[in-house]
Amino acid sequence: MKQVYLDNAATTPMSPAVVDVIADEMANDFGNASSTHTLGRKARNTVETARHTIARAINAKDQEIIFTSGGSESNNTVIFGVAEMRQNIGKHLITTKIEHESVLRSMQHLEEQGFEVTYLDVDSDGHISLDQLREELTPETILVSVMAVNNEVGTINPLKEIGEIVKDSNAYFHVDAVQGLGNVDLDVEEMQIDFMSTSAHKIYGPKFLGFLYERDGIRLPNRIYGGDQELKRRAGTENVPGIAGFGQAVAETEEVAKADLQAKYTEFQKIILSRLDQSGVAYEVNSPLTGLVSHHVLNLRLNGLSTYVLLANLDLAGFAVSGGSACTAGSLTPSHVLTAMFGADSPKVSESIRVSFGRYNTVEEVQAFADALIRVVQKLQARQRQD
């Protein structure tokens, strides 16, 4: 049975061209990028070419891009680095209640060290209040960390407006753009972003690789000590094949108009919701369908049915979806995102699934999923009535 993959917010399949680039690099470009001989210089050129491609995609300078192991490392590097180097200015940080766990748990650890963290509220669409952000900023605030696109409901934060607010304070502005890169336009200059975290495997690239954008003129303390790799900011031999694949993946995202991609995902959402309406299945949409939202995520509550039962039955039917963030998928803890949006007592936190689309998904796959979802829901509801 062919598995239909609709969990692209968790990870994406690698682009065939990315696979080819990585395989070619592994076979033919095995030199250490820090070596001075011909093979080393060839590897260095591969790394710097990818760095330039990535920098250009977000309107950054080449030297502002640091390759890391992914979004979690980049987020940790920024949060702990800023806390370490700026605690003489203040010990207050601001983030939101619906950030990725790599941000939230880092902030919680800082709280244990005596720092103060403000967690901004969100409304039922997952949006923060800019007025609350203004009110919470103080002269002691050293960092504002807000994600570009939420990984569970697709909400887009108004980064340009946030950047305007933060620039007049003592704080740096950090953006977790793991779900944003490839889905929305990102410009670090226009948005006045100081740090940005990304991950290659969310844009059809390899796992365990990302980059950290660090604005020119800011120098975070090193988290990994050793050699002088990555402009002396992150020790460790560069993963040249992976970096080459990351550059290819970013180049491919730049070839696809974001508006066209969003239109495609919007059509996918309409197909699912239309078929659910026709079937009479009781459901609610948790993610916003209009406004500031990336339509690659559709979060649905299927009334009265446990998330875990739904996921198991859909998996058996050949469809891969999730209950929320992949980083907490093995936990029985309800979604902190849906809890922040709707309250801990809402049934949505335990009766919802996340369907997330990618550029390789087809109309036929989405139609098949909608039909399978209806069959699964109707079967489970009939079983409930019998019980």
UniProtKB/TrEMBL annotation:
Record's keyword terms, sorted: Iron, Iron-sulfur, Metal-binding, Pyridoxal phosphate, Transferase
Residue ranges occupied by any Aminotransferase class V domain in the UniProt entry: 4-369
Catalytic reactions on record: (sulfur carrier)-H + L-cysteine = (sulfur carrier)-SH + L-alanine
Gene3D superfamilies cross-referenced by the UniProt entry: 1.10.260.50, Aspartate Aminotransferase, domain 1 (3.90.1150.10), Type I PLP-dependent aspartate aminotransferase-like (Major domain) (3.40.640.10)
Top-level taxon of origin: Bacteria
Classification via InterPro entries: Aminotrans_V_dom, Cysteine_dSase, PyrdxlP-dep_Trfase, PyrdxlP-dep_Trfase_major, PyrdxlP-dep_Trfase_small
Pfam families according to UniProt: Aminotran_5
Cofactor(s) recorded in Swiss-Prot or TrEMBL: pyridoxal 5'-phosphate
Similarity remark: Belongs to the class-V pyridoxal-phosphate-dependent aminotransferase family. NifS/IscS subfamily.
Protein name per UniProt: Cysteine desulfurase
Species for this entry: Lactobacillus nasalidis
Gene label: iscS
